[in-house]
Amino acid sequence: METSSLKTQRLALVNVCLGQFMGALDARSVIVALPTMSVHFGTAMETIQWIPLAYQLTMIGLVLSLGRLGDRIGRKNIYGLGYVIFVVGSAGCGLSTSLTQIIAFRVLEGIGGAMVLANGRAIVSVIYAREGRGKALGVASMAFHLGYIVGPSLGGLLVDLAGWRWIFFVNLPVAMVAAVMAWKVLPETVTERSDYNIDPIGMVTLLGTVVSLILGLQQTAKAGLNLFGATCFFSFFLFLGLLLYFERRATAPLLELGLFRARLFTFGIISLFFVSLCQTATFFLLPFYLQGILSFSATNVGLTLIFFSVVIVFLAPIGGWLSDRLGSRLLCTLGSVCTVVSILLVSRLDGDSAIYAITLPLVVMGLGWSFFQSPNLSAIFSAVGADKLGAVSGITLMAANVGNGVGVSMASLLYAVWLSSYGLSGRGVPPYTEWGRNPEIFIAAFQNSCLVIAGLALIAVLASAMRGQESRHRSRE
Q: Can you tell me the distance from the alpha carbon of 293 to that of 441, in angstroms, rounded to the nearest whole number?
């Protein structure tokens, strides 16, 4: 590919940043609104979790295929069309009259989001392949967390003033502007196109692996480990075995297992999975704690959660700049340690916690993500050739979204298990609006759940430290 002009580089980066902003805006608005939506639809935590899960599972099922498709037939049109589909899905969610309808339109949103995200970072990685890839990915991360800032605060305000439906309507202008811009300014980053072979067995077994795991966790949270839950966990191991078996033998595999021969790539994906899992699990529980125990309004929840992203907006570009000079191992290990410390701090929150005690762990978590995300992505992309960037972009998105999906289910499961140990389970668990009547049980369940999540985050620390050091010249090729 010929060297892109500086103007083209900047416009492409702006457009990809819009996509990152939109995705984060949607994700964080939804998280803030979940307690309100649970009361509106009369559903418990283990049911309302399907609003974020529907989106994440769709992403998991499609990002690898769409990333590979972009590598072979071109990324620009797939990327632009994704914005249009996302607009339709968001509008449908806002107009829905039942939880089932919302979940269906969240699937449509997930299709559009997968088309955008599977190809957006690959486009930036190609355009900035010669120089500044880490810095560009850092800017994209900054845009993502700018959406994280706007999402909770704007979402909480909209929930309080206009109703939860507006958290979906607010996506529409951003997505429409990004769609028009994508078709007008983005260059095509694939110069040699080839035939695309669908790997239906890979798609089915991958989706079956993730769905059966999440269903097993969800069912266990809802009713304990019964026959259905045990069947789901058995199906998880069965699908996982079939996935590995068939992908080793496929001529054009959906999941290119050969990429995992690179130590840097493998440990980068593992650390990304566990950081995503632990952060998402923490953020899933926090709004219920803030509204149920401390009686925060949705607006105040949103304003509180933005401390995490404010730090990232300022520091993510610095993390990307440092990764171009220092490599990923030191920075990612430091970032993972900060994640563990932040969750441990969250686990100490109680019914009398001051605002600084709530915001401090969010600041530490934001610091950790700033040191982790851009260096980790830059290292993962540097470990493969340019013809694999779409596939790698899909794998990174899959790892993050599997982590997000498992994180939501894991948080719900842990909280349900701890509540059950204190004598509350199933229909005996009151809505969050009544938690203040007997807060000790809910506080203890929250604290113990966070301790387990912090323990899982230690795996990210080990994976980051064991990844090895990339060759500095490779990231500049």
A: 11
CB 442 within 8 A of CB 404: no
The DSSP result for 271-324, as a single string, is HHHHHHHHHHHHHHHHHHHHHHTS---HHHHHHHHHHHHHHHHHHHHHHHHHHH
Tell me how many degrees the CA angle 201-202-207 measures, rounded to the nearest 5.
105
Cα–Cα dist 360/368, whole Å = 12
Contacts of 381 (CB under 8 A, 6+ apart): 125, 133, 137, 389, 392, 393, 475
Give the separation between CA 264 and CA 261, rounded to whole angstroms.
9
pLDDT-derived band of residue 455, with 50, 70 and 90 as boundaries? very high
Tell me if 46 sits within 8 A of 69, measured CB to CB: no
* CA-to-CA dists, residue 354 to 8, 53, 414, angstroms: 48, 32, 25
DSSP string for residues in 382-428 = HTS-GGGHHHHHHHHHHHHHHHHHHHHHHHHHHHHHHHHHTT--GGG
Closest residue by Cα to residue 159 from 286, 53, 51, 29: 29
How many residues would you count in the chain? 477
The mean pLDDT of the chain is 81
- CA atoms of 156 and 167, how far apart (whole Å): 9
Over residues 20-71, the pLDDT tens digits come to 888 878 877 888 888 888 888 887 766 787 888 888 788 777 777 777 777 6
* Rg of the chain (C-alpha set): 21
Residue 237 host element (H or E)? helix 227-249
The pLDDT tens digits of the residues spanning 139-149 come to 777 777 677 77
Name the nearest CA neighbour of 164 among 30, 301, 306, 49.
30
The closest of 229, 219, 280, 307 to 450, measured between CA atoms, is 280
Whether residue 105 contacts residue 93, with contact meaning beta carbons closer than 8 Å, is answered with yes
Cβ–Cβ under 8 Å, residues 310 and 249: no
CATH classification (class only), 6-197+252-476 = mainly alpha
pLDDT at 281: 93
Helix (H) or strand (E) holding 356: helix 355-382
Query: Which pLDDT band, with edges at 50, 70 and 90, does 3 fall under?
Result: very low
Query: What tokens does 279 get?
Result: 């952060």
**pTM (predicted TM-score):** 0.74
pLDDT at residue number 392? 77
Q: What is the distance between the alpha carbons of residues 158 and 147, in angstroms, rounded to a whole number?
A: 15
Per-residue pLDDT at 145: 67
Distance CA 169, CA 155 (A): 11
